[in-house]
Automatic annotation (TrEMBL):
<dbReference type="GO" id="GO:0016787">
    <property type="term" value="F:hydrolase activity"/>
</dbReference>
<comment type="similarity">
    <text>Belongs to the metallo-beta-lactamase superfamily.</text>
</comment>
<dbReference type="InterPro" id="IPR036866">
    <property type="entry name" value="RibonucZ/Hydroxyglut_hydro"/>
</dbReference>
<feature type="domain" description="Metallo-beta-lactamase">
    <location>
        <begin position="64"/>
        <end position="278"/>
    </location>
</feature>
<dbReference type="InterPro" id="IPR001279">
    <property type="entry name" value="Metallo-B-lactamas"/>
</dbReference>
<keyword id="KW-0732">Signal</keyword>
<dbReference type="GO" id="GO:0046872">
    <property type="term" value="F:metal ion binding"/>
</dbReference>
<protein>
    <submittedName>
        <fullName>Metallo-beta-lactamase superfamily protein</fullName>
    </submittedName>
</protein>
<keyword id="KW-0378">Hydrolase</keyword>
<keyword id="KW-0479">Metal-binding</keyword>
<dbReference type="InterPro" id="IPR051013">
    <property type="entry name" value="MBL_superfamily_lactonases"/>
</dbReference>
<dbReference type="Pfam" id="PF00753">
    <property type="entry name" value="Lactamase_B"/>
</dbReference>
<keyword id="KW-0862">Zinc</keyword>
<feature type="signal peptide">
    <location>
        <begin position="1"/>
        <end position="16"/>
    </location>
</feature>
Length: 380
């Protein structure tokens, strides 16, 4: 735990005033981005494996499952970033199937990403490339439902062993069979954004792949330029709860918390578990809190393969979160589940519509499902 106190120093701190100061080049090229929510994946009694502290009564984790359709019109190319989860989880490899057979995991889903694409008039055959942020079951989807012409792009250290050839593999043979599979080589990256190695996917500054290791070997994320001066960060599982990245002084400065949420936070955040310089017992003061509420789990059963590297990646992505021109969306952010503009709507005009200002602090609201900062009173 002591080593985590030095993570911010390892990652470096930024006083950047704009995305260009983070190392992102200027460009007039853009992509269109649309988001799908495939449903909810619930894990019983596992919140401690994702973040700490885990307050009494808050042991379960409910995670929406987001996938992103990225369209590069100038090349007539469609990319799917994260394929979500397959609709028949009992056909997963045994090593991950047991999450469902044991009753730990529960899936609430009307259809997988192929069903959602097809219902929206998007043929799976029109998807040129599927990009996995990493190879966990809620990001890999069912690749057998895409034609072999759809390529697969994965992180450099992704484990490509498949079941049944390898008994303990988390992937199945159909995830990779018969299609071109490419591992991103960040060693060739010529760009660095806030300490993150970046590769220009289309070569025109519209869409970047970022090296964000820690959650799983080979974990990557993306940065999409949706207007010449605004971006959407597709952060994958760099973190799982926005309270692992917020609040921070830079975010407080660039996008102050609205007054009504500051008021709600007085009683929606327990002073038995959280504190700030101007807090009083029973009355939490959010405006003077400079440290994020939650940390990445370092317990033996952590869902982060390397918590130290994961925290460094989080610190770097947090500089994006503090930039008013970058909208950060992690793959399971329940705080925005009810406010994201889903397909067929576009995320390109998020800045014009004030989406970040409207949502970035919602996680501290009393009624927001991401507010896990007060113990639940249980009655037997």
């Amino acid at each position: 735990m002591r080593s985590l106190l030095f993570i911010a120093a390892l990652a470096g701190t930024s006083t950047a005033s704009s995305w260009h100061d983070l190392g992102i080049p200027r460009s007039s090229s853009t992509v269109d981005v649309r988001v799908f929510n495939q449903g909810n994946l619930t894990f019983d009694n596992t919140a401690h494996s994702f973040w700490l502290p885990n307050l009494p009564g808050r042991e379960d984790i409910v995670a929406p499952i987001y996938s992103f359709l990225v369209e590069h019109k100038s090349s007539n190319t469609r990319v799917l970033f994260d394929a979500g989860i397959r609709k028949d989880p009992l056909n997963l490899a045994p090593s991950v199937r047991q999450l469902f057979t044991s009753g730990i995991a529960h899936l609430e889903q009307s259809g997988d990403i192929v069903d959602l694409l097809t219902a929206g008039g998007i043929s799976p055959a029109s998807i040129n490339t599927v990009i996995w942020s990493h190879a966990h079951l809620d990001h890999t989807g069912d690749m057998s439902r895409f034609p072999n012409t759809t390529e697969l792009l994965i992180g450099p250290e992704t484990d490509t062993q498949t079941y049944p050839e390898f008994a303990n593999a988390s992937l199945v043979a159909s995830d990779l069979a018969g299609r071109k599979v490419t591992k991103v080589n960040f060693a060739t990256a010529k760009l660095t954004f806030s300490g993150l190695k970046a590769i220009d996917f289309f070569g025109d500054g519209s869409f970047y792949l970022l090296d964000t290791p820690g959650h799983l070997p080979g974990h990557l994320s993306a940065l999409a330029r949706v207007t010449p001066t605004t971006f959407v960060s597709l952060a994958g599982d760099t973190f799982h709860h926005v309270g692992q990245a917020r609040p921070r002084p830079a975010l407080q400065k660039s996008i102050p918390c609205p007054a009504h949420l500051l008021e709600e936070a007085k009683t929606s955040i327990s002073t038995d578990y959280f504190w700030s310089p101007h807090s009083h017992t029973g009355s939490f003061d959010l405006s003077s809190r400079s440290q994020q509420f939650l940390s990445i789990s370092v317990l033996p059963d952590s869902f982060y393969a390397d918590p130290i590297k994961a925290q460094v990646s989080l610190e770097k992505v947090a500089t994006f979160d503090a930039d008013p021109d970058i909208l950060v969306i992690v793959a399971h952010d329940i705080s925005v589940r009810d406010t994201l503009p889903y397909f067929p709507k576009y995320l390109n005009d998020w800045k014009k519509k004030g989406l970040k200002e409207k949502t970035v602090w919602n996680f501290v609201g009393k009624s927001n499902p991401a507010n896990l900062f007060t113990p639940l009173n249980r009655t037997v």
